[in-house]
Design a protein that fits this description.
Chains A, C: InterPro entries: 3-oxoacid_CoA-transf_A, CoA_trans_fam_I, CoA_transf_BS, NagB/RpiA_transferase-like. The complex is a heterotetramer, with two copies of chain A (about 230 residues) and two copies of chain B (about 250 residues). With about 230 residues, chain A is an alpha/beta fold. Helices cover about 20% and strands about 25% of the residues of chain A. The chains are: A alpha/beta (about 230), B alpha/beta (about 250). β6 of chain A pairs antiparallel with β6 (about 120) of chain C.
C-alpha cells in the first residue's frame, strides 16, 4: 500500500547508514535529484549506490558522492565530462567501483524483482568484465552467468502517480525507474503530480502500485513538461 | 513455512497476524465454505496484495470489507480486479484466471504475462490462497495432479503462485470423502511446490505450518484431542487458542 | 519494417508444414482466432503450437487441433471444460503435450526474445515438471534451469496498430501477446484498427513496431470493445 | 563474422547487401568522416532498425534519405529518435545515449532499460555502428578501455550493442596517429565483444570480416597492394571490387 510522503526529507528519513540503494536515471534524465539531496541533508553514510552513472555536475547523486556518503557504486558508465566528484573520490581511493555492462545492469535488477536466481547473458563474454564468472555454451553461443542486484531502497523519478501508487514516466526519463521499482524492499518515487485512483488509464500504467511504497511531490519540483503531456 | 521471498518483506504492509484479532467462533460444528472464507478474509492485512485461486478461495473476496484496501491480482495480467461482471459489464477481454468475466476497479493496471508472473515470482504478492489435494507437515503442496494415469495433466499458474507469494494459504476440507486427512506427513500426489504453504484453513481447524511443526490456531466444532485423532501428524495447540467443543 | 497484410489468409500464407508457432491468448481473450482459422484454411500441418491452453470450443486453436494440424502443443493448462478437441487428440495419441508452469512458459518466451540463454527459476523445483532439469541452490533458495522457447512465427491479437507496427492491447487480452511478439522470426498481429504513424502516443505503446512484421485487420473482425476505449 | 542472433534474421528486412549498389568513389585520397558516414548510410537497408554509437557513427544519420524508413534506436529507451533538438525543442527528459537532447519522430515509442537492452540482446536490431580502438581479423572488438592503469573504466552499453545487434559495423580511421593499423591479428586492448564485428569502415578501405578471413570491398585513394602493406593480417580483394588508386 502506498503512502504519500509530505516532504522529500520524510520520504528518505529511515534510510540507514550502510543501505544499498537503487537510484533511477540516465545522467540527469529520470534522476530523483530532490530525493538524493534530501538524503544528503539526512546524513546517511556508507551507502552502496546502483545507478547507470556516477553523478553529473553538482546536483543529486554527484552531491551525495561529494558529501562522502557513498562507499561503493555499481554502474556502467562512471566517467563523464561532468563526473568530477566521482573522479576525485575514485582516484583518492575513497569509493569502490563495480563496473557492469549497461544491459546486464538492467537485467540483473530485473532478475531481482522477478525472482530469477541467475541468468546466462551473452554480454561481456570473453571480456575482462566476465572474469571469474561461470560461462556456458548454449546452442552454439557463449554466455556468462549473472546474479540479481537487489536493494534495500529504490529512489526513482516518475511523472504522474495515482493514489494506488501506479506510475507513469516521461519520454527517456523512464529508463531504469520501472525495473528498479521492482527490486527494492522499499521503493520511493518522486513525481510531478498525484492524481486520484482512476486518474491514470489502467492500460497506460507503466509501474503498477504494488511496486511502490512511498510517493512524494518535491516542494521545489520544476518539471520541464508541458501540461498537455500528462 | 513460507519460501524466502526474493525481495524482503514490504514494511508498508503489516505482517500477517499470528493470531486472529477476534477469536473464531468455536460453535457447534464444522465451518461451511462461506464461514471459512470469512476466517481467511479476517487474516488478510489492510492494504495487502492478494491472489485468490480458482474455486473455494474466490469466496474470500466476498468477505473483504470495502475499507480493507486489499488489491486483488489475477495472474492473467491485472491488479485491481473487481467483482464478477454481470449484464452489460461482461467484456470477453476482461476475465480472471478462471476465465470468468470480471470488472475493473479504480486504480487498476494491466500488464503482460511475463510481467505478471515476475510480480508473483519476485515475492511482491503478500498472500495467495489456493485449494489443495494434500498439504504436508513441511508445507509441501499438492494441488495440480492426482497422478492418475489417464488424467490429462494441467498445471496453469499453480506452481508459480505457490512458490511466489510471500505467504501461501491453503483452503480445503480437512478430510477426503473417504475420511482421510488431507494434511499429511508426506504428500502422496505429485507436488506443486516444496515447503511453500504457511497456513491451512479447513472446515475443522486452522493450522499454522511452522519450522518446528504444525500448530493448531483454532478448531471449529471439534476438540483438539479429537482433531489429533484425525490427523496423522504431531500437532501442537497454539498458546491462547480457543478449541471448539466436539 | 511492418507490412499491412490485405487479408488474414495472405498474412499466414507462408507458414510451412512443421513450423513452430507462438499463439497469443489466455482462453479466447487475446486469441488470434481469425488468423488461426486462416491457417486452418491454408493447410499447414505438423505444427508445434505454444499457447497457454489447448483450445476452447470450436474456434481458433480448437479448430486447428480438430483439423489434425497440430503435432505438439507446449502449454500450461490444456484441460478445460471446453477443450474436447484437444482431449480427444491427446487420448488418441495424436498430439504430443509438453506441460510448462504458466510463469515459466511466459519467462521462457521472454528469454528467447531477450537473448537470455537460460535462467534459474524457483517455480517447479521439487515437482515432476522439473525432472531431469539442472537444479541449483542460490542464496538459500532452490532453482531450476529453464531454456528459451523461440518460434518461427508468432500469431497474436492486439487492439490498435499504427503504420510503424506499434501495438496496444485491450485489458486482460494483453496477456501473452507482448512477450510472444519478441520471440518469433516473424510476428503477425491481427488488430481492430490501423492508424497512421503518430496515432498512438509513444508513452502508451506496449509492443514497439520493431517486433512486428505483419499487421492485418480481419474482414470479419467483431471486436467486443466500445469505441471510446480506443 | 556476426554472432548468432537469438532470433533468426527477420525476413521483413532485406539482408545487408554484400556489395554496394553503386561502387564507391575511388577518388584521390582517404575519405573524410562525413564521406565515410555516407558510405555506411548507403549500406543500411530500407526499413532497418539501427543504433548509432556516440561520436563518428552519429554522422551516419545525416546521410539516411527521408524515404529510407530507417528507425533509430537509442539504448536509453526509445525507438523512432529524430534529429538533435534545438531551441524550444530541448527537453531534458528526451535525450540520446550520449545525453544530447533529441527529438521524437511520428511512430516513436518509449520503454524501460531492461526492455531496451532485451531488444538489443535478443537480436532485434539489424545494425549497430560503433567506434573502435581495435578490431581483430576474427571480428573481436576493443572500444571501451585502453587498459591504461590510471584510466577510470566505463563501458556503458558498448558490450550489449556489440554482441546484441545482428550486424555490428565499426567506423574508425584505419591508422592510429602513430601510423599503426587498428585492424589487427589480435586485439591488444581489453575486449568489448568476441567475434562480433561484421564490417569495418575506415578512411582507407571497407573490410568485411568473413569466416575465412578479411575481405577488402573497396579502397579509398590507396591501392590494394599498399593497403596490404599497412595492415598486418592477410587480406583478400572482393570479386568485383574497385580498388582506388594510390
Amino acid at each position: 500500500m502506498v503512502a504519500i510522503s509530505p516532504t522529500v526529507e520524510a520520504a528518505v528519513a529511515d534510510i540507514p547508514d550502510g543501505a544499498t540503494i537503487l537510484v533511477g536515471g540516465f545522467g540527469t534524465a529520470g534522476q530523483p535529484v530532490e530525493l538524493l539531496e534530501a538524503l544528503v541533508r539526512g546524513g546517511a553514510s556508507g551507502l552502496t549506490i546502483v545507478n547507470n552513472n556516477a553523478g553529473n555536475g553538482e546536483v543529486g547523486l554527484a552531491a551525495l558522492i561529494a558529501a562522502g556518503r557513498v562507499r561503493k557504486i555499481i554502474c556502467s558508465f562512471p566517467r563523464q565530462h561532468d563526473s568530477h566528484h566521482f573522479d576525485a573520490a575514485y582516484r583518492a581511493g575513497a569509493i569502490e567501483l563495480e563496473l557492469v555492462p549497461q544491459g546486464n545492469l538492467a537485467e540483473r535488477i530485473r532478475a531481482a524483482g522477478a525472482g530469477i536466481g541467475a541468468f546466462f547473458t551473452p554480454t561481456g563474454y570473453g571480456t575482462p568484465l566476465a572474469e571469474g564468472k561461470e560461462v556456458r555454451e548454449i546452442d552454439g553461443r557463449h554466455y556468462v552467468l549473472e546474479l540479481p542486484i537487489r536493494a534495500d531502497f529504490a529512489l526513482i523519478k516518475a511523472h504522474v502517480a495515482d493514489e494506488a501508487g501506479n506510475l507513469t514516466y516521461r519520454k527517456t526519463a523512464r529508463n531504469f525507474g520501472p525495473v528498479m521499482a521492482t527490486a527494492a524492499t522499499t521503493t520511493i518515487a518522486q513525481v510531478s503530480q498525484v492524481v486520484p485512483r482512476g486518474g491514470i488509464d489502467p492500460e497506460n500504467v507503466v509501474t503498477p502500485g504494488i511496486f511502490v511504497d512511498r510517493v512524494v511531490v518535491p516542494a521545489t519540483a520544476t518539471e520541464p513538461h508541458h501540461e498537455e503531456d500528462q | 513455512m513460507s519460501t524466502l521471498p526474493a525481495v524482503p518483506a514490504d514494511p508498508a504492509v503489516p505482517a500477517v497476524p499470528a493470531a486472529p484479532a477476534v477469536p473464531a467462533s468455536s460453535g457447534s460444528g464444522p465451518l461451511g465454505r462461506d464461514a471459512l472464507a470469512a476466517v481467511v478474509a479476517r487474516d488478510i492485512p489492510i492494504g495487502a496484495y492478494v491472489n485468490l485461486g480458482i474455486g473455494q478461495p474466490t469466496l474470500v473476496s466476498n468477505h473483504l470489507p470495502p475499507d480493507s484496501g486489499v488489491t486483488l491480482h489475477t495472474e492473467n495480467g491485472m491488479l485491481g480486479m473487481g467483482p464478477e461482471a454481470t449484464g452489460d459489464e461482461v467484456d470477453p477481454d476482461l476475465i480472471n484466471a478462471g476465465k470468468i468475466p470480471v470488472t475493473e476497479l479504480p486504480g487498476a493496471s494491466y500488464f503482460h504475462h511475463a510481467d505478471s508472473f515476475a510480480m508473483m515470482r519476485g515475492g511482491h504478492l503478500d498472500i495467495c490462497v489456493l485449494g489443495a489435494y494434500q498439504v504436508s507437515q513441511a508445507g509441501d503442496l499438492a494441488n495440480w495432479h492426482t497422478g492418475a494415469p489417464d488424467a490429462i495433466p494441467a498445471v496453469g499458474g499453480a506452481m508459480d503462485l505457490a512458490t511466489g507469494a510471500r505467504d501461501t494459504f491453503v483452503m480445503m476440507n480437512l478430510l477426503t470423502r473417504e475420511g482421510e486427512s488431507k494434511l499429511v506427513e508426506r504428500c502422496r500426489y505429485p507436488l506443486t511446490g516444496v515447503a511453500c504453504v504457511s497456513r491451512v484453513y479447513t472446515d475443522l481447524a486452522v493450522f499454522l505450518i511452522e519450522p518446528d511443526g504444525v500448530v493448531v490456531r483454532e478448531t471449529f466444532g471439534i476438540s483438539f484431542e479429537d482433531l489429533c485423532d484425525l490427523v496423522p501428524i504431531p500437532l501442537r495447540l497454539a498458546e491462547g487458542a480457543r478449541p471448539g467443543s466436539a
